[in-house]
Amino acid sequence: MRYTPREVVDKTGFTLDTLRYYERIGLLDDIDRNAGGQRVFSDDDIAWLEILRCLRDTGMPIARMLRYAELARGGDATFAERAELLEEHDREIEAKIAALREEQTRIRHKIEWYHSELGD
Is the pTM of this model over 0.70? Predict the structure, then answer.
């Protein structure tokens, strides 16, 4: 399958500006173009964008996303480095989740206090 940029926006939720930006900085590589020069995306491009969305949404900095993209272009020989990079990111996500849980506990205690003051 081939997709126009508009279809990719609809499928991924990225904006056209983000797609252009990702291509310009090297997160998207080798995007085909049609005879009119318009970008044409493949299913593999969509799958790659889904990975980028996951990394972005979980707080990975652009510089590390670029490093991951660079490693991915390196083929099978970079599996260990990619796994290490993702494992490090996973540990950071776990730490953020733990910190959020602590803050959520504080908020819940405050809610309980308000309810007790209101006589609920």
Answer: yes
